[in-house]
Every structure is written in structure tokens, then in C-alpha cells.
Fold this sequence. Notes:
By secondary structure, the protein is mostly helical. The protein has helices at 5-19, 24-59, 61-76, 83-88, 93-107, 112-123, 127-138, 146-168. The protein has 8 helices and no strands. Helix 5 (93-107) runs antiparallel to helix 6 (112-123) and helix 6 (112-123) runs antiparallel to helix 8 (146-168). The two termini are 37 Å apart.
Amino acid sequence: MSDYVVPAILLGASLLALYRKENSYDILLGGAAEGMRLLVSIVPALVLLLTAVTMLNASGAMEVISSVIAPAFRFFGIPPETALLVLVRPISGSAALAVGADLMAQYGVDSQIGRTVAVMLGSTETTFYTISVYFGAAGIHKTRYTVPAALLADFTGFFMACLTVRLFF
């Protein structure tokens, strides 16, 4: 049934356009053109974010930062081994998945660390990516309170992921 969802939507949109006596091809073409303009406005921010994450990982700065903040993580009950994941997740989802896969390979998927990593990945967002995409699409340049509030939500997600794994596993 799922194979027919997209064709059904396209057929329904075409029939609606025919009913309204509108040119569905021109409407779809206009939407594609708008999507391309949006892509052009978003790509520079995405390239910058991915470049920054790659540079921090390659230089070893992420590992130095994670070792410095490990005591604070222990205080909040967050395993220090997940420090790199906590630092990378708000910036890049693909880098966070790579870090998570490495942690699971190192500690095992059924270990406390493996389960914590899995819940962390599922309960947090790539904050800076999301902000750059949505604010870039809307033409908003000043984020004001968005970044601190989103990072606080991420920290809450990380903290609750650790607490949930400790309580249920």
C-alpha cells in the first residue's frame, strides 16, 4: 500500500487542479523553482557547519574539549564517554551518528553506554542545523533566545536519556 501513496497524492493534486481549471504542471514547476531558491539560501550555512565539525574532529579539538568537560558530565550523571556525542549532536546529525556507532562498537549495543547513546540520538535534535535551515528559509538573521533555549532543551534531552536508561535498564 505504501508504494501507492505518492502516486495517489500526485493524482489527487492533478485532479484538484483540473477541477479548479489550473495548470498543475506550472504549479509544480513554480514549487520546484521556489525549492531551488531555498536550497541556494541554505547551502552556505550547511557547508559551514559540516566544515567546522570536520575541522574540529580532524584537529583533535573535540577530544580535548570532551576530556575537559568530563567532570561536569559526571556531576550531572552523564557518562563521560558520551561527551563527544553531546558536543557533536547539536551541530551535525551525521557526525553524531558516526560517534554513536563508534561508541556502540567500542562498548557494545547492550551496554549502559550503548543504550544511553541510542536514547540520546533519538531524544535530541541537530540544533544548529535546524536553526540554520528554518531561520534561513524564513529570512531571519537574529536568533535572539532561540539558540540558548534550544541548547537547554538538548541538555535536558541528554540528561533525561541518561536518567531513563539508568532507571529502566
